[in-house]
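We emphasize that the prediction below concerns an isolated chain of 334 residues; any contacts that depend on oligomerization or on bound cofactors are therefore not represented. The input was used exactly as deposited, without trimming of termini.
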Amino acid sequence: MKKFVFKTALFIIIPALFFGGIYVWTDPFKLLRPFSFQYFDNKNREHQSLELLKFNKGKYEYDSFLFGSCRLNSINSYHWKHYLPEGSTPFVFQAWGETIFGVRQKIDYLAKENYDIRNVLILLDVPGGFLNTESSSDAVTKNYYELSGNSALEYHWSMAKNIFKPSYMVECVKEKISSGEQELIFDTVSNDFSISFRKNWMLEPQKDSLRQSTPQQREDFFNKILIRKEIPEPADLLDEEGRNCLLHIAEMLKQKNTNVLVIISPNIEYKYPAISESDLLFLKKAFGEECVYDFSRDDYLIHDYNCYYDPDHFGCWAGWYIIENIYKQYVGNK
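Result of the prediction step, given as a token string:
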């Protein structure tokens, strides 16, 4: 019996030590050492955003915040800043696969840390931005424990489980062996995804066109779009939990006397649905009709494929178009 228990323990402990050792040694998501500009990882964008915010606290008086998923890469915070009150300092509090539940966590964190929240831009994707991923174990969508309130141990266990996939473990080991100094492509002040945005915010970007793509790239692009044979119908995504989440965000920002801008992302037709009329109406009731702008039905953006750099992400020109239209057409007519 003792031998059986001993062998069973070895069978469990040795693999656990092996995989745990690989996780600690490779640190694939750059979670186990203090944040620095020589030690970060874009795969875990939420963690990187939070650590940069903490790193810069006291150096910059952030008072304007952008929340959103990877699609926020095409919204230039310096372009947005141009339309904000003079002296505003934006910070892109981004997370891959961001949802309304992640936005709630970040706004609660900012309020707890006594940030002045004067201006907020929230970019919501359809359908992903309305899905509750708080219990997700996926490395991309797992909410960081300092924001979610969950235990650090549970968070690291969820992240470490990615190492169990042999292909990912090999990738992490290769990356660790070959890794050199990280190239800084993000803006270390605003956290814009590209540092180049700071220099060219005043220039209208070129369209992210397919014209320079190879025939195979164009074929792949349209195959991914036209996998459906008909345009998907809008569906209600907000349940009671989602509505309460949005009401909480709206109330927190109302208490802070925040200027709020809620943008519904554009989608290429055939790929994703537009926001449902019911969900859009609820957003307008929660935040105010004048604060919510739906680009998921924008005739120009949903039909012109040259506004996208891949089927899931609109490009920098579309981001420019969105901000310009809001502030020059809609806000200008108030």
